[in-house]
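seq/struct pair 1
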Amino acid sequence: MPFKPADNPKCPKCGKSVYAAEERVAGGYKFHKSCFKCGMCGKMLDSTNVTEHEAELFCKNCHARKYGPKGYGFGGGAGCLSMDTGAHLQGDDIVVNRAPLLAKAIAKAPDGQGCPRCGGYVYAAEQMLARGRAFHKTCFKCGECNKGLDSVNVTEGPDRDIYCKVCYGKKFGPKGYGYGQGGGTLQSDCFAVSDQAPKTTVADTASIKAKPGQGCPRCGGVVFAAEEVLAKGRQWHRKCFKCRDCTKTLDSINACDGPDGDVYCKTCYGKKWGPHGYGFACGSGFLQTDGLTEDEISQSRPFYNPDTTSIKAPPGQGCPRCGGMVFAAEQQLAKGTMWHKKCFNCAECHRPLDSVLACDGPDREIHCRACYGKLFGPKGFGFGHRPTLVCADGTAPAVHDPRPNSGPKAAPGQGCKRCGYAVYAAEQMISKNGQWHKRCFSCHDCNRSLDSTTLNDGPDGEIYCRGCYGRNFGPKGVGFGMGAGTLTMA
């Protein structure tokens, strides 16, 4: 299939293709950034001062000079806006009229496209919107009192005209006793001298039927702006916006849209569409069980089994102790494995554990610190709760090396850097060169116990205190060392 390039819009000014990186939009046309300027004065334009007329761009001043009203009093000065030669005033039958000249007639637009009030074209510089219809700024006024309107006080009537709120209330609002400026403003003549008040009459807008799918979902009538309530993109009458079941008046907080397309209060929505069964609703008698025996009621109750160990997980994915499925509500983590909260206890003393007390042993179980020390800690005199190795003849016991000397060693590069045996989390010390047992974490030369503040990693892979590190790897020569002549050059 031959390659067909994409069609791009053409710039009305230069006729060349306009791409997305350089386009400017005005009046539905796309222009180049360099072509987006006034056609009269050449001023560069933007979205705030551009005015489009028949695919030509103008600044607001030039548009007013070329297409705005002409005559005395229009423009920047007294005589700056009259460019005609006065040929229409050369006749002898000229009648002098001191009234201000009327503006030039506005070109009529096709039906349904122009200003609803005068029918002329509406351009962007003088546009006022009401219900999706564009009015001239001079035509945007009340249909009764001719008061100038804006987006705050405009109200559209059922006759498709626009009114101020006062005139809308007088013309389409409710009529009857008690409405208006005072108590007796709207009184019928037959009740003028009577003590009985006339009945209040309310205009029923439901009688004005709308097109199918466009009116109020409850009554089908036309919804006007003064009585409009919105819910899920649909327009309701204020008097129709109530619960379908209990007829409670709704607002935007307690209204719930049901799956049948109607609106409900939260209580009725829960009763009609919420979960049903034993234990749901406000009280025990919500779900009536009349005519049922106690055995039948107990059989209909849902069965709850709190023991999740009966739900077996795939091998290697469940709780390491019971093998059951571990869900998020009861999950405990230890070394990348998930445990049940009730299973997360010491394997020896069954003490409940947390992330601080838990110690992972080499048997893939978890222990508290005391049980971990008894099972996997160093053995001998001085370790544990009592002196387990005591000489009976009174002689001093032999010094016991606490480092492990039995059992399998760890893989190369994974065990303790000094003894080579596996290092577990409860006794782990870390340096730059690797991990160490807590008992092996001492200076290589003087056997002084180290911590993170006194640790020095040597270039030979061992660890030293600061003094031994300086003696072995520090600078040599006169002036270095403990005294004036301690380190002399040979």
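seq/struct pair 2
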Amino acid sequence: MQALMLLLWTGALLGHSSSQDRAGSPQEDSPAPDTTGVPVEEEDPFFKVPVNKLAAAISNFGYDLYRVRSGLSPAANVLLSPLSVATALSALSLGAEQRTESTIHRALYYDLISNPDIHGTYKELLASVTVPEKNFKSASRIIFERKLRIKSSFVAPLEKSYGTRPRILTGNPRLDLQEVNNWVQAQMKGKIARSTQEIPSGVSILLLGVAYFKGQWVTKFDSRKTSLQDFHLDEERTVTVPMMSDPKAILRYGLDSDLNCKIAQLPLTGRMSIIFFLPLKVTQNLTMIEESLTSEFIHDIDRELKTIQAVLTIPKLKLSYEGEVTKSLQEMKLQSLFDSPDFSKITGKPIKLTQVEHRSGFEWNEDGAGTTPSPGLQPARLTFPLDYHLNQPFIFVLRDTDTGALLFIGKILDPRGI
């Protein structure tokens, strides 16, 4: 009965296509003519806005990156801010000749959108998602080998659209690490720890993407209700973690029978939200949910969830990640960037991508803007009590409401840390 009452969409609306199927990606403004006599579905007006369409494209890149990263570490937490990595790649494409540029643009799904000013629109997107009230910081940098002569015709558009200048290594590992750490600290306002990993020798091009987010709920949690509770790592093992509770939480909810998961969305200040995917049974195998994730699927969820009142428990979370996503990108049809790319718009010397680093920090606690839900949120009347307990492995997606951009994505198998 519960499933019937809260099953809020059909399989057709969800469009459960494989992550390898690009039919679910943002399409051209004009739908292709249909020769079968079946009416062609109109594109959602949301995706006709250039900045939203670009956000959907690079978010689809982000879901691809997440899937590969998760597949490489199936038994570990995953924390990614794919936007910072996408930004570094998009900026690098400014220096690529046609063949290499096409490789990057296809990975970022730019080939499926018609936008003569991708980089100008990217500037607009970055400005939108990093306004102070969103509590989200993201920055990217391109670092080149020592003594490289860079063309000014590359630096000028890089600075114009992405607000960054390339860095050339000195060749002194200690000084180079210090400079990178200082840059990260300045960009992230000291919220991300300094790295102790030396810049490796033999770097030709190093891409660095960093991001930080501290969520502030629209309705804060009562810290007096936070207590140590069990989190089920799997069917046999549990750990005890601080869990925040709200016996009368107002959230948006739906049950997906195809994915066998309960979906909930909690609003954050700054027109942001977090969408949680919680399997009906305790499992660390979240592949079915992961395979369904696309910008369009998340957008459909955002439109279809219903506002309800529920008993909510959620672990306090403070996670960080520092490491490479080089191997993940190599598995995403970007291997040629590491072998024999053409970056002759950057320099006359043959250079290639060597390493892609990602550093991120993410946290939420009881903090919120108010003690009562927004007046406009009227929950649906339910004839039964509903619980939503994030006390087992789950996936979360941090989404910007205005643009639809994917800002963070996490697979939480153990909330105690990465």
